TrEMBL record:
One of its GO terms (molecular function) is 3'-5' DNA helicase activity. It comes from Amphimedon queenslandica. PANTHER family: ATP-DEPENDENT DNA HELICASE Q1, DNA HELICASE RECQ FAMILY MEMBER. One of its GO terms (biological process) is double-strand break repair via homologous recombination. The keyword Cell membrane does not apply. This is DNA 3'-5' helicase.
Length: 304
């Protein structure tokens, strides 16, 4: 049998039927059929490797309705299949089911991160961290969110922004969709040192791109959470008024406050073309036959 590592391209098929028969992996004609349990278990480390990312052709989720119907009760691994998709944001994903209503389809799209809004927000944050790093200067904008300027505190801000930039850029990061640990007033959460951000139901109703008012958006929320994970920031205050008050009264804490970074980055004045939102294609940047077919089907179904 040809091993996974010897093949140039791989199509990963998440199969419920195979899982019901046996938890074995079959490799045929550049196709890997695998159960959800193995995919989020033993194979998880493999999925994070650079070699996997290079050889992955696309992901197919068969009987996709099981992600919703079984994920919270019968087989919890189904609820985590969306994590695999967010680890492969530049690859095409196709969900197949013959049992679908409009509401169920929306739930499946959310669980599998098929809505491209997460991808659009994620693709912007790396450049945003880099741009914010260059704006750490003794300006009114800096003082508004981090307080009185000193070289030592500015160095802390730069260190945290740099950690976020390289953390997102160098690591395979994961977005877990609607985990059970979410609370009703949470948009998202993560842990210091984690490579996963957990996106709660309210996250999906937010706009994609940062707005000058500083209102919560997907882009801002992701930057907030990655500042926790890679920059090891804390939550001292939330919202424009409290963040600015923290900057005035306790700048030593402000430079470690996650929400201050979200506001510092999202409310930065833009000039020229930098102020225009860039709408990216839902199709992947390096298309292949499978991804092109997925994109064609997406555009076709969208106009029906």
């Amino acid at each position: 049998m040809t091993s996974f590592m010897e093949l140039k391209d791989q199509l990963v098929i998440i199969s419920t039927l195979l899982a019901l028969i046996s938890d074995q992996i079959s490799v045929l004609s550049n196709q890997v059929s695998i159960s959800p349990e193995l995919l989020v278990g033993k194979w998880r480390k493999l999925l994070e490797t650079k070699l996997y990312q290079e050889k992955l052709l696309g992901i197919v989720v068969d009987e996709a309705h099981c992600v919703v119907k079984w994920g919270l009760t019968f087989r919890e691994a189904f609820a985590r299949v969306g994590e695999v998709r967010t680890m492969s944001l530049n690859h095409a994903v196709m969900a197949l089911t013959a049992t679908s209503t409009s509401d169920l389809r929306n739930e499946v799209q959310a669980k599998l991160a098929l809505r491209h809004h997460i991808l659009l927000a994620h693709k912007r944050i790396c450049n945003k961290f880099a741009r914010a790093y260059r704006l750490v200067k003794n300006t009114a904008h800096y003082r508004r969110w981090f307080g009185a300027y000193t070289s030592s505190r500015a160095a802390i801000v730069k260190r945290i922004l740099s950690a976020c930039y390289w953390g997102v850029r160098r690591n395979t990061v994961t977005y877990s969709i609607n985990p059970s640990r979410c609370r009703s007033n949470w948009n998202a959460f993560t842990y210091k040192g984690s490579k996963t951000v957990f996106l709660c139901p309210s996250f999906h109703s937010k706009g994609i791109y940062c707005v000058r008012s500083g209102a919560p958006t997907k882009e801002g929320i992701l930057m907030h959470e990655w500042s926790h994970a890679f920059g090891r920031t804390n939550d001292y205050t939330y919202g424009a008024r409290d963040n600015q008050n923290l900057a005035r009264t306790n700048p030593g804490r402000a430079v470690y406050n996650a929400d201050s970074y979200e506001y510092f980055i999202c409310t930065t004045r833009r000039r020229g073309s930098e102020g225009k939102a860039v709408v990216l294609s839902v199709c992947v940047s390096k298309p292949n036959l499978f991804s092109s077919l997925c994109c064609f089907l997406f555009e076709f179904l969208r106009v029906l």
